[in-house]
Amino acid sequence: MTAHGTLAGPGTLRFRRRLPGPLERVWSYLVDPDKRRLWLAGGPMDTRPGGAVELHFRNSELSRGDDPPPEKYREVGNAGTVRGEILRCEPPRLLAFTWGGGPDAGEPPSDVTIELEPDGDEVLLTLTHRRLAPGPQTLSVAGGWHTHLDILGDVLRGDQPRPFWRTHTRIEAQYAARGLG
After folding, report:
1. Which residues are in the Activator of Hsp90 ATPase homologue 1/2-like C-terminal domain (predicted)?
2. Which domains are present in the chain?
3. CB 3.0–4.6 Å: which of 12, 51, 73, 89 could bond 8 by disulfide?
4. Which contacts (CB < 8 Å, 24+ apart) does range 54-58 have?
């Protein structure tokens, strides 16, 4: 299993990770805002279909000793919010929600589906992000999910989380070299 995401179709990225279990523990890091903020973003999530999702990103706070955001991300810096809506929630195996977009953004939302499968003492996580615009958005999303999922693995293993921006810059360059952007 490669750590790099793959294009699973037009505008669709897919990532797979093996994580330390059990299943319920990994699930809690998806839906509990205090645990989710350790690897992705804090913020409320009403897991009922139609419920609101509000992800408050603080990427520079995910680890110690990180680099500042690269120039192209300086406008966002260490603060960003993505809003969405729960599409499906089947604890502890499936979480699907819209990602950004909407009338205020002037573009349709994309959507994220996270599936969890037990595999012995581990959990297989499959994340699929659909309806992405080609080019820079897909490149940024690929680098972001890859880095956030690596940090989730660090947190679940009890390791010091890797530096977000330093890792993201390196990983995004790898995806660009693969022709993703």
Report:
1. 22-156
2. 9-177 (3.30.530.20)
3. 12
4. 54/81, 54/82, 54/83, 55/81, 55/82, 55/83, 55/84, 56/80, 56/81, 57/81, 57/82
